[in-house]
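Please check this chain.
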Amino acid sequence: MAKRDADVHTGYNDLKQVEMFVETAEKMVGQATMQLDPEMLDHAERAVENARRQLNRARQAATGVDDDFFAQCEQKLTRAEHQLREAQQ
């Protein structure tokens, strides 16, 4: 039974993972830009990249009903990237 359950794939899990990756990236960018620590900024940049990769993976498996969710995540990541770039200058 565990094997069967491990093979179950739902879109909800993909969306939840994207949501967690985006939230983590936002938090890391916020912390890094407040501290202006170069190492924290690097980690935040990687978190944003990871979130974007996760978002792209979920988009590839999407059914088309999640477009609003993906658009919101895209906007959040774009804002985080902009905030990060401003802090790095």
Summary: The chain has one domain: 18-88. The first helix runs from residue 2 to 7. The chain is about 85% helix and 0% strand. The mean pLDDT is 88.
